[in-house]
Amino acid sequence: MKRILAIVFCLLTLHSLAQTAEGDVENLSSMESGLPVVLQEIAIIPEPVTLIKQTGHFILPTNIVILANKSPELKQTVAFLQQRLTIPTGHFVSVIHTPSPIATFKLIINDKIDPILGSEGYHLTVGLKQVIITANKPAGLFYGVQTLMQLLPKEIESKEEVKGIKWAIPCVQVTDYPRLGWRGLMFDVARHFFTKQEVKQYIDAMVRYKYNILHLHLTDDEGWRIEIKGLPRLTEVGAWRVNRVGSFGDFIPPTADEPRNYGGFYTQEDIKELVAYAKERFVNIMPEIDVPGHSLAAIAAYPDLSCSSEAVNYKVRSGEKIMDWSRGAPPLGLVDNTLCPANEKVYIFLDTVFSQLAKLFPFEYIHVGGDEVARNFWEKNDQIKELMKREGLKTIPEVQAYFEKRVEQIVVAKGKKFMAWDEVLEGGVSQNAAVMSWRSMKYGTEAAKAGHEVVMSPTQYAYIDYMQADAITEPRVYASLRLSKAYEFDPIPADVDPKFIKGGQANLWTEQVYNIRQAEYMTWPRGFAIAESVWSPKEKKNWTTFFARTEQHFKRLDIAETKYAPSVYDPIFTVKRGADRQLQVTLSTEVEGLDIYYSFDHSFPDRFYPKYTTPLIPPIDATVLKVITYRGKTPIGRMMNMPIEELNKRAGKK
Ligand code: ACM
Fold first, then answer.
1. Alpha carbons 140 and 282: distance in angstroms, whole number
2. CA angle at 182 for the pair 178 and 183, rounded to the nearest 5°
3. Main-chain dihedrals φ then ψ at residue 446, nearest 5 degrees
4. 8 A C-beta contact, residue 67 and residue 99
5. Which of 530, 559, 588 is the last residue of a domain?
6. Backbone angles phi, psi at 59, to 5 degrees
7. What burial class does residue 632 get, using C-beta atoms within 10 Å of its C-beta: 0-12 exposed, 13-18 middle, 19+ buried?
8. CA-wise closest residue to 236 among 300, 294, 309, 288
9. Engineering a disulfide at 502: which of 5, 182, 256, 317 sits with its beta carbon 3.0 to 4.6 angstroms away?
10. Can you spell out the DSSP letters for 475-518?
11. What long-range pairs does 345-349 form, CB within 8 A, spacing at least 24?
C-alpha cells in the first residue's frame, strides 16, 4: 500500500511540475492547514507585465490585518479588500493605519516615485507571511488588489461564506502597469435603460479587469437618459417609449394609443452618485450626448430642434425601422432624427446641456457623437440651403463640420475636451478634437497621423454588441465578433506615433440587449480580450494562455454570478458546394482540443455519435444537422440545431 501511495505521490508531483513548466499551474502540495492537496492555478487577466513565481504559499490567517494610510483616496480600496476577504472566508479582517508587525496585508504609497509604475502600476509581493502592494498612486494599489484577488482561490468570488477552502495565495512577485491609459467600455443606456444599480454592477465587473473609463451613451433615438434642469420634457417625454420585445429594429410601428411607459432616466443626483461610485473605483465616466444624428428622443421632446416641420408628430423610437441602410453609409433617414445645424435654438439647447454635463462629470472629455448622420433631409431643406450659402459651405459633410465646430466651441467653453465618432473627420474638424475610431482602425490611423488624439474602438475587434458565434444559437445581430478575433485587437497601429493613441475601448450597444444579464453575457469573455489588449504588453499576448486563463475566469464568474457567453465552445460551420454542386459542410472550433459529434436524424448527438473528422455531405432527406462539442468525455458546447436549408442558403445557389 505504502509503495502504491509513493508512486501516486511521485506521479502527482511529476504532473504538477510538468504543468508548472508548461503553464501557470503550481502544485500546492503541502498539508499546511490539514486541507487536501489542491492545484492552484495562476490565471491573471489582464496578463501582468512580469510575474515571478516563488515557492510556497501565503495562507490567510483567521485574523487578517490590513495596513494602509488613512487617505480618503485609499478608503475604497481598503474597504473593497476588507469586504472581498471577509465575506467568502468568514475571517476577521481589521484595518490599521500605523505600521505594526501584526499587519498581514500592507498597502503602501511610495514616498519616492518609482518611474516604471506610472500612476496606475504596482508591485505586489506575496511572501510566506505577508502581502505587500506598493504603488505611486492609489489607483495602482487598487489594481494590485485586483490582481491579488485573482491569485486567491476562485471561491473568493462568492457572495456568501465558503467553508472547507484552504485560502492560499501562491508566493509571487508581480510588477505591473498598463500599456494604455484609456481602457474603456461603452455602455449604451439609451436603447434600453439600465438602472443606477445595474450601472454600478457593470462597474464592479469591469474594474476587476482594470478598465478605467465607462463611456455612457446617454442619448439616442430611443431615449434621453439624463435630467437637464430647465429642459424637463427631455426626461418627461424623451425618456419613455413603447415596450416591445423581439427583433429590435423590425418592430411594428407603435400605434398612438400604446402606452409610452418603458424607459427611465438618471436624475442629476443619480449621476453624482454614479460618478462618485466610479471614481472610488478609479473609473472615469465619460458622458455622450449623440448629436446631430441619433437625436429623435430630444426632438420628440422639443420639435423646434429639428429643421423638419413633421417633427411635431415625432415620437421617441420604440424599435421600429428608422433608417434605410440598403445603399450603405450614410444611411437614409426615414424620419429626420437630426438636430438642425441651421437653427440657433439648437446651439442654445446644447449650451444648456453641456454646461450642466460639465458640472456633473469631472472627466475631461465630453463625447458629442457625430455618427451616422442621415443627409437626405438636410439636402432638401431650405434652412440648410440658406446656411450653406451664408457660410460658404459646399457639401453636406461641410454642414456637419460647421455644426461640430460650433459644438466644440461650446464644449471647450465649459472647460472640457471635445470627443466624437470618426465621421466628424469627413468635413474637417479642429486639430484639438479627439476622435473615437469605430468604423475601422483606418480612420483612427488617419486621425492620429493628422495629430488628433485617438481612442480605438473598431467594429472588427471591439464591437461587443455583435454575435459571439453562429446566429443559429446567438441572439440575432447583423454581424459577428468571436473571442479570438477580439483578442487580436492591437489599438496601436504600427505606422502611427503611439503618443496620439490614448487607448482602446469595447462598445456595448444595446438594441438587442434587454437586460443586465444579457449585457454581462455580451461583455464577458470578450471584455477579457479587450482588457488584455489595452493593459498588457503586446509581446505578452498569447491566445493559448489567454484562453486557458479565460476558462479559469469562467469558473470565477460562475461563483460571482456574473453571466458570460460560452459561445467560444460552439463549432463554426463553413459551407461550400463541391464540383457536383453538392453541399459540403466543414466544422471547426475556435479553441483546440474539442471533439465535435453530430447527427442528421433529429436526435441529440453525444460522444457515442459520429465524431466529425472530414467535411460532411448531408444525406438527401436530412433537414437538420445537430452538433455538440466535447472535451474528452464532457459536453462543453451548446447543442446546435442547424437547418440544412440554412446551410444551403449560406452556400449559395444549388
Ligand atoms: C456607432 O457605432 N454608430 C458609433
1. 9
2. 75
3. -60, -40
4. yes
5. 559
6. -100, 125
7. exposed
8. 300
9. 182
10. PP-S-B--HHHHHT--SS-TTS-GGGEEEEEEEE--TT--SHHH
11. 345/304, 345/305, 346/292, 346/305, 347/406, 347/407, 347/410, 349/231, 349/298, 349/302, 349/305
Residues 6+ apart with CB under 8 A from 593: 631
Which structural domain, as residue segments, surrounds residue 595?
A: 570-651
Does ligand 1 come within 6 angstroms of the Cβ of 372? yes
Cα(328) to centroid of ligand 1, in Å? Answer: 14
In whole angstroms, give the CA distance from residue 448 to residue 240: 39
Which whole-number Å values give the CA distances from 332 to 90, 270, 324, 338, 614, in the listed order? 60, 36, 5, 12, 46
Query: What single letter denotes the amino acid at residue 54?
Result: Q
Give the residue from 359, 244, 353 showing the smallest Cα distance to 290.
353
Task: Return d(Cα 315, Cα 311) in angstroms, integer.
Answer: 9
Is residue 284 located within the same domain as residue 384?
yes
Name, in order, each residue with C-beta under 8 angstroms of 554's C-beta and a sequence gap of 6 or more: 525, 564, 566
Residue 350 Cα, ligand 1 centroid: separation in angstroms? Answer: 21
Could you tell me if 202 and 105 lie in one domain? no
Atom of ligand 1 nearest to the CA of 372: 3
Q: Among residues of the chain, what percentage have pLDDT more than 70?
A: 94
Same domain, residue pair 210 and 154? no
Burial class of residue 287 (count of CB atoms within 10 Å of its CB; 0-12, 13-18, 19+): buried
The minimum-distance atom of ligand 1 relative to the CA of 421 is 4
pLDDT digits (tens, 9 = 90+) for 291-313: 999 999 999 999 999 999 999 99
Same domain (yes/no): 413, 550:
yes
Residue 344 has pLDDT above 70, yes or no: yes
* Ligand 1 pocket residue status of 371, Cβ below 6 Å: yes
Please say which residue of 540, 559, 578 terminates a domain: 559
The cell for 606 is 453525444
Please report whether residue 181 resides in a domain. no
pLDDT digits (tens, 9 = 90+) for 240-275: 999 999 999 999 999 999 999 999 999 999 999 999
**What pLDDT does residue 330 have?**
86
Name residue 456's beta-bridge partners.
437, 504
Cis peptide before 525 (omega within 30 of 0): yes
Which CATH number fits the domain that encloses residue 550?
Answer: 3.20.20.80
Q: Are 301 and 224 in contact (CB under 8 A)?
A: yes
C-alpha 286/C-alpha 275 separation (Å) is 9
Angstrom distances, CA of residue 246 to CA of 243, 320, 514: 10, 11, 10
* Cell, residue 440: 475601422
From 613, 627, 625, select the one nearest 651 (Cα to Cα): 625
How far does residue 402's CA lie from ligand 1's centre (Å)?
A: 21
Distance of alpha carbon 409 from alpha carbon 415, whole angstroms: 10
pLDDT higher than threshold 80 for residue 381: yes
Strands 213-217 and 182-188: parallel
Pairing type for strands 454-456 and 168-176 reads: unpaired
- Give CA–CA dist 338/291, Å, rounded: 7
Fill in the amino acid letter for 445. T
